[in-house]
Amino acid sequence: MDQHPWTREVFRDRHGRGQRKPMFGARLPRYRTRSGIFDSAVASQIKRLNEAWPNLVSPVQFAVEDVPPSDPVPWDDDYRSLSNSFPAGHGIPARIVLYRMPMQMQVEDDTELQLLIRDEMVSRLAELYGRRPEEIDPQWGLWGI
């Protein structure tokens, strides 16, 4: 049986001269893209919130999109460009959508990005459940600490 070249451990490059290997490892900084860093920050915040409030976080679906839609719905009075939440209805679970590029443009480093993601997720969860954000996360809104 003939093996496909991609199933073998080492195979030749396109021109047949050298071995095709990755140029850098998956854990090196070059491998991590801005979208990958953002996704991992969102995943860590979901995990952190789920450990504190599993009954609030587990029924909610989280999504990341690059940019918000260009035409917001007309009935959405409080349209914010950093995130959006959609309440549950007709068999569809509640959803929170974070917009990556507007959030990355608001901050200067990864620490500020973590804090902005945390604040947006907590405020959207509070909005979905009709609570104050401070009830869900007492550190909500504290940027300088």
Structural key phrases:
145 residues, Zincin_1_sf, Metallopeptidase family protein, alpha+beta, three-stranded mixed sheet, globular, Zincin-like
Please characterize this protein's 3D structure.
- The chain has a single domain, classed as Zincin-like.
- It starts with 33 loop residues before the first helix and ends in a 9-residue tail after the last helix.
- A hairpin with an 8-residue loop joins strand 2 and strand 3.
- A 3-stranded mixed sheet has the order 1-3-2.
- The chain contains 5 helices and 3 strands; from the N terminus they run ααβββααα.
- It is an alpha+beta fold and 145 residues long.
Topology at a glance:
Layout: H1 34-52, H2 54-57, E1 61-65, E2 83-86, E3 95-99, H3 100-106, H4 110-129, H5 133-136
Parallel strand pairs: 1-3
Antiparallel strand pairs: 2-3
Helix pairs in contact: 1-4
